[in-house]
Structures are given as C-alpha cells and as structure tokens.
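Protocol step 4 of 6: structure prediction from sequence.
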Amino acid sequence: MGLLQIVLAGVLLVAAAAKARAGHGAREALRSYGLGDPRVRAAAWALAIAAEVAVAIAVLVDVDAALAAAALLAVFACAQVVAIARGRAGAPCGCFGGHGRIGWWGVGRTTALAAAFAALPFLPDTTLSTDAWLAVGLGAALLGVAALAIALLALAREVGELRLAVAPQAALSLEHEGPELGGRVALVERFERGTPLKVAVFTSSGCSLCAALEPSLRLLANDPGVELATFDEHDDADAWESLAVPGSPYGVVLAADGVVLAKGTFNSLYQLESLLSHAMARV
C-alpha cells in the first residue's frame, strides 16, 4: 500500500466525517444544488457520506478502486459547475461540512482530486518499507507535537488577554466598617518589630478562604518593610471588638505610631497588597 493511496483515501474519509459532523448545516447546504425537499436533502447527504466512506475503504483495499473515487469526485465537480451556471456561486457547497462555498476554486480542487485518483492505478508501485513507515510515523508524531505546542501557546495568549481585559478589584473598604481611617489604635502594641508598616489580618478558624490565603500571607510576611500579624475571631476577640471588624478575612494597615492607614475586606493577595499601596500613599 502506497503513501499516496493512503493520503487520498484519507481525504475522502475526512470529507465524509466533516459532512457527518456538520449534520444539519451540511444538509442545508444541499439547497444550493436545487434540493428543496428536506427528505431529499437528508437522503442525498447520507448517500454522499456512505459513498465517500465506501470508496475510501475500497481504495485502501484495492488501488484499482481509485477509478470509482475519481468518478464520484467528477460527479461532485459537475454538480458545482451546474450550480455556478445557475448563479449559486458563493452559496454553501457542503463539500467539507457546512462551511465551504461554491466557486471555481472548489471546482478546481475537486477536479484535481479526481485526476489524482484516476492516475493512482497507473503509478509505479510505491509500497513503503518498514523503515519508511517508521519515518512517516515519526513525522506525524512530530507534527502532532508541534500542533499541540501551537495550541498551548494560543491558549496561553488567550488566557493572558483575558486576564488583562478583566482588571482585578481592590479590597472592599467601607467607611462605616472597621476602625476609622486616620485614627490611632492600641493594636499597634501587639506588634514587635520596628517596621514602618504593620498589617493586621483578621481570620476565623472556620473560614475556608482564610485557610486558602495562608500561603499569600506567609509571602507577604517575608517583606522586610512589613510586619504581619493575624488575629483569630475567637482567640483575639478583644482585638476584633476594639476595631469593629465586620468579618474575615479583613486587613488593617497601621503606621508605626498606630495610625490606621488602610482597611478592607480582601480575598486575594492582590487585594491585600492594594491595601498596602493605599497605606504607602498616605505615609
């Protein structure tokens, strides 16, 4: 079995699969050929798929069956020529599903395939050796890997564009919740280091979001210019009450002298960092 024999049969199988996958769209495309009755279109669609599959299999079994494939494609090309003569150029052709259009390009493509099938039985025997088949398989695998890499790059680009299009939100800071901005609170005495900014994070033991944010909090705690401390709703109820914390997770950024620079509810590291940005702008 030659490589060209396999490739040409594969083209017919792909065309049949595209028609089957397009379903209603491929059947509706047959209106372009004057088939107005839905039952006639459905029968013609099924017949075209069956004919392409049968001829493709026959070509794989016996190269002489390529003449039947050439005749089938010649019928398809003639149908397109008739449709063009009736002013249907640009209408759906249904050749590879429901997306193709009737035109001279389609006629030329179908005619070229018909000629290739017609010439196939008269070509020299090109049966591939084992090494040649291995080379073909390796080439196909490399093409598959390349296609997958391109698809992944395209997906990464789409995700990146989506992230740029959807701007992240800042922490939710309401004036009537939490401590008063600009006020001085005694909570600063619970901090030990002499950093310019103190971040008080209020959490709850039953808060799943708080648990998910723990890695982000550890990352922020490594900042040498920031001292971070957490206050549990039950273990540090006095701190919650004194600052009128509305819920968790909640953050309050203090200056070294205890002045409240920023406050708000957050659910991501970005939102917590937005509180720090606001605080540094007030320093």
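Step 5 (inspection) to follow. Strands lie at 197-203, 226-232, 250-255, 260-265.
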